Amino acid sequence: MSILPKQCAVASPWTADLALLRCPSCAGSLDDGTAALTCAGCGASYQLRDEILVIKEQSVENNRVAQEFYDSPLWPKFRFWEKFTWFCNGGERRARNQVLRHLPQQPGLRLLDVAVGDGVYLPWMPDDWHIMGIDIAWSQLQACRIRAGERACRLVQGEAESLPFCDAQFDAVLSIGAFNYFNDPEGALREMTRVARPGATIVISDEMPNLTGRMLGHRLGMPAIDRWIVSRLMHLGDRFTDMVERHSALDVRSIAARVWPDIQYHEAWHGLGYVLVGRVPH
Ligand SMILES: C[S@@+](CC[C@H](N)C(=O)[O-])C[C@H]1O[C@@H](n2cnc3c(N)ncnc32)[C@H](O)[C@@H]1O
Ligand SMILES: [Zn+2]
């Protein structure tokens, strides 16, 4: 990926992309290095591991619950159910295209994927797109790095709420499957907007927050049955299930409207999910 070139004495895989980056603590520029990038403002050092830029290793609160889940053996077991949901919605590619179709089909698109996970849809993106992915789970980033292979893709370990990028850098920002449980979804949307250039498209999608409340056990007044199904049978685990239950009344539309009054809201996957689409004003 070579979005904005910048000449530096010590070359790292990030040399050509340094101008995109800024220190999340002080907004200073980052200087190149082979093992780490160093903030010219506050001197903070951000390691490069397997070419992944490590901005934040340990999250707290909801983000930590997600980080531990996606780094744990529960995730591959839960994934079976995610795949099953895609299968029921016409197959994974078709189901995900309900979201991805909102991205502009622009040659050389500079795309930021927030909560990129293992990048399952990277191979479907045009080869000339420049993709920057950020996620908090190290094992997901490792899997994404391997999946990306030779394509133009850079990866960062960090949080959606504090993006280590300068203002107005990306032509599109995408986030699938994480928004509901961000520590601060509104703050994350503000960050996505900040790093997107005027005219850029922002696409955010997740499941409906009240899905467990629609299950049969809840309707019969026996929510414990649903809890067992979600946490044990589907392998979401107790902590993630607690988090889902705590956020079942999350009002995604109101959160989004506080940042973007005219953001579009679409239902996806037969009402199981939603897609928010916005265009950054000029
Ligand atoms: C269901 S996966 C989705 C991955 C990918 N977008 C996809 O659709 O396959 C959710 C991802 O969000 C990441 N995540 C959760 N909270 C995050 C946050 N605050 N900042 C960055 N990544 C986060 C998790 O680590 C996980 O990899
Ligand atoms: Zn700094």
Can you offer a commentary on this structure?
This protein is α/β, with parallel strands linked by helices and 282 residues long. The chain has helices at residues 61-70, 74-88, 92-100, 138-148, 185-195, 216-219, 223-233, 238-246, 252-259, and strands at 30-31, 36-39, 45-49, 52-54, 110-114, 130-135, 153-157, 170-176, 196-207, 264-268, 273-279. The protein has an eleven-stranded mixed sheet with strand order 1-2-3-4-7-6-5-8-9-11-10. A hairpin with a 4-residue loop joins strand 10 (264-268) and strand 11. Helix 5 runs parallel beside helix 9 (252-259). It starts with 29 loop residues before the first strand and ends with a strand. The model is unreliable at 4-8 (pLDDT under 50). Residues 23, 25-26, 28, 39, 41-42, 44 line the site of zinc ion.
- Largest sheet report: 11 strands, mixed
The shape is globular
* Poorly predicted runs: 4-8
SS strand fraction: 15-25%
- Attached small molecules: S-adenosylmethionine, zinc ion
**What is the CA-CA span between the terminal residues?**
26 Å
The helix fraction, in percent, is 25-40%
> Overall mean pLDDT score?
93
Number of strands: 11
* Rg of Cα set: 19 Å
Order of helices and strands: EEEEHHHEEHEEHEHHHHEE
| Largest beta sheet: strand ordering | 1-2-3-4-7-6-5-8-9-11-10
User: Counting H and I runs of at least 4 residues, what is the number of helices?
Assistant: 9
Helix/sheet category: alpha/beta
Q: Determine the oligomeric state from the structure.
A: single chain
